Every structure is written in structure tokens, then in C-alpha cells.
Amino acid sequence: MTRPIALSCGEPAGIGPEIAARAWDILRADCPFVWIGDPRHLPAGTPIVELDDPAQAASVCATALPVLSHPFAAVNTPGRPDPANARGVITVIERAVALTQSGQTSAVCTAPIHKKALIDGARFAYPGHTEFLAVLGGVERVVMMLASDTLRVVPTTIHIALAEVPHRLTPDLLRETIEITARSLRTQLGIAHPRLAVAGLNPHAGEGGVMGREEIDWIAPLLEQIPQDSFTLTGPHPADTMFHAAARARYDAAICMYHDQALIPIKTLDFDRGVNVTLGLPFIRTSPDHGTAFDIAGQGIATPTSLIAALKLAQTMATVP
């Protein structure tokens, strides 16, 4: 039996419902998934079948979008998030995780959420999806990886001000990021001996201490201390020479020091096909690498390319032995 992917609806006023419908229309039976949300929020005319059991998805996805219905408090107005729907968004995420942890679905794929609406409507206590999923998975530390066929990048620090990075970037944090990434590349992506390249924090990786001493004082010594029996680790490398084609061929993932150092290269090289993957969870989780796009919601012009890539990557990860 093919277990479908659980696709959470995300923010109903964003592009999530329409790209879910378009992704189904393109993928059909090639990548079975079940959409969890309020059917009223899907684009008018979307052929759906409401299911009682996710196992039924494989038998209907060729001709209709499989739906696990989850009633929300309000209808959706594209571009205008309603805090009344916040509790529904949160509960759908919880339901997708529960289905995957129980083995009824193979992975979780999440459509974008709008944090302000969740805070306003349900006092959502987490900075975003990733931190909430860590709590649901019962783990303290997870890692965000952005992946495409061109590049995989992992930011060690994420959504903090650049001025805070040198203070929040610690040896323990970098070590955990490296170890979780290496383990996940083996167990979830099937890379037997991952190659990781670590970027420096400063321009030119400090250039011998002239442009910063973090590389000399602790980053390079830490990399030398980390056992490399099951993966290969190099660095710290100057970040400005890590992302051209020849350099990318030498590693499976780049460990970066801060958000933009990681995300600018992948969004430049493969903007539409980037996938957000949460590493370190006890289940598979992917997501399109974009937001709710309120400015174009409901206009029928949103592309499902990143969502399709996220669904396909989840399917691939679910088949790794």
C-alpha cells in the first residue's frame, strides 16, 4: 500500500489552497498526497473526494484531489488573513504530524503559514513552523535545510539580526548543526558518506585574522575535533567562493553561519525549486520555500513549482531504506 503525504493547508488567505489544487492536477497519481483543510477554501471547481482514511488517497488521486476535511471558523478571502482561522491552521499541522507519526501518512508537507494571524487569533507561541514541529516531534534541536537539485544549504543561525550572529553562533550550536545534517543526509536522503563544506563567518574566512578571528580562534579548531568516521568535513571556506559550479561539485551540503549567507545562493541559483526541509525530526517534513504571497492570492497566477518539488522530495525521502 502506498502511504500518501500529508499536506497541511497553511494560511487559507494565501496561495496555499490554489497551489495545492494545481500541484494535484499536475502530479495526480505520480505523487499521492492528501490535503488537510476546509474544502471551502479550495478554488471553485476543484474536483475533490473527501476521505475517511488517508489510505484511500491512492485510489482516488488520479481523478480528484484527496481531502481530509477539517472545518474552519470562517471562509477565506484571498489576501486578507482572518485570525478566526488561526486555530484551524494550527490544528491541521498537528493532525498532519499525528498521521505521519502513526504511520498513516509517509511524510508531512506544509503550506506556508502567516505568523501574525496565528498570534492574533490563537496566541501562537512559536517563531514559525520549524520550532512548532520540533515540539510536536519531541526534540530540542532541529536544523533547517534548503535543498534543490542544484544546491543544499544549512544556516546555523536563522531568523536573528545580523548583529546578533557572532553572539549566538557558538561551538555547541555549530557542532550540533553539522552532526544533525550529516546524520540526516545519511538516514533520510540515502547519501552513504556525506561531504559537508563549512563556510567562514567573516569575509575571506577572516583572511588569517585580518578580517575577523572567529575562524582562527574556534571554528577551525572545532572542525578538527569533530570525528569524521561517517562523513567528510572541510572548511572554514570563504563564502564568496563556495557556490560556483566547480565548488558545489565538491560537497553534498554547505553549512553556513547565518540566514542570508545560505539563502541568497540557493534562491539565486534555483529560486522556484527550493525546498525547506527540517532535519532532526522523527518524521519527514518538507515545505515550499516561499511565503503566503497575499499580493497574488486568488488571482490564479501562483506557481506550484516549489510545492511540487517539496512533495517529490518528501516522496523520495520516504523511500530511503
Produce the secondary structure layout.
Elements: E1 5-8, H1 16-27, E2 33-37, E3 48-50, H2 57-60, E4 65-69, H3 86-101, E5 108-110, H4 115-122, H5 129-137, E6 143-147, E7 152-155, H6 165-168, H7 171-187, E8 195-199, H8 214-225, E9 232-237, H9 245-248, E10 253-256, H10 259-269, E11 275-279, E12 285-288, H11 305-318
Parallel strand pairs: 1-2, 1-5, 2-4, 3-4, 5-12, 7-10, 8-9, 8-10
Antiparallel strand pairs: 6-7, 6-11, 11-12
Structure description:
With 321 residues, the protein is an alpha/beta fold. It folds into two domains: 1-143 and 281-321, Isopropylmalate Dehydrogenase, CATH 3.40.718; 150-269, Isopropylmalate Dehydrogenase. Helices cover 35% and strands 17% of the residues. It contains eleven helices and twelve strands. The chain has helices at 16-27, 57-60, 86-101, 115-122, 129-137, 165-168, 171-187, 214-225, 245-248, 259-269, 305-318, and strands spanning 5-8, 33-37, 48-50, 65-69, 108-110, 143-147, 152-155, 195-199, 232-237, 253-256, 275-279, 285-288. The protein has a twelve-stranded mixed sheet, sandwiched between helices. A hairpin with a 5-residue loop joins β11 (275-279) and β12 (285-288). α3 (86-101) crosses α4. The longest helix has 17 residues, at 171-187. The two termini are 16 Å apart. The model has no long low-confidence stretch (mean pLDDT 96).
